[in-house]
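cron nightly-structures :: item 1 of 1
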Amino acid sequence: MIATFVVLIAFFIVDLFVIGRKPHVPSTKECVQHIAFFVVMALIFGALVWTFAGSKPAIEFYSGWLTEYSLSIDNLFVFVIIMSNFAVPKMLQKYVLSVGITVALILRGCFILVGAAIIQRFTWVFFLFGAFLIVTAIKLVAGGDDDEEYHENGLIRALRKVIRITDEYDGERLRTERDGVRYFTPMLIVFLTIGTTDVMFAFDSIPAIFGLTKDPFIVFTSNVFALLGLQQLYFLLGALLDKLVYLPVGLAFVLGFIGVKLVMEALSGNSLPFINGGRPVEWVPEVPTWLSLVVIVVAIGSAAIASVVKMKAVEAKQSK
């Protein structure tokens, strides 16, 4: 297990602070090669888990990885809007993403530790997780999470009132000097915005992954592999994200399915006195791990294919 964490952290450091540290806009070829490498590594890792721990943990890993990866793609919508809103220069966007993804990993690690501890002591929390995911799924379908416009949160607005912030970037610096006066650059606001957004992302992703597996090791490794290569995915899909019109529907189906699964698990292990007299509900069926993987693959795959078909149809209509 220690060796696994060392390798994953090495991957993460190389991805973000060796390859990703060079300020440039990656080519399509570079993006594809980078993403393909980490996808293959995730598949190999899952195969190793299967070999040494059995099929169930491996299927849980694949299910968790696909779910987290899909959520990460959806989160790129917001990253694109943030970069555009704050006019982050193209050459600096890789650096901003490096910091944002690092913050995301740290936050998810903290949420995983807290979530695992809570689940072990209070199984009824599955009711809350399940309800949250179902509500999130409904909002995705209904368009409740409108990503077409970004609105600054209260923290950012308050910060602008108490510190001096320039309107221009000074490379990667957080502070700069103008006429002998020290100012913060917009980079500070961008980092805070990315960080606070990452917290909201964690609220979606952590309950979803705990709905597929209770093993903190599988939960953490699924999240790490989902974040690896996210920089290159941002540049590769940046121009196409608004064309993946059915991705939110696919994600909503996955989150809704996991939410229902969590509620069912909570009922089967129920200890709340006002539900079935504090006894487990015996008639609730158990959802097998392989079925979760099938549902995730079919839902996300169908959404992606449907989006591509619609994109081609629109392009063909415009070319006439």
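cron nightly-structures :: done
The beta strands are 175-178, 181-184.
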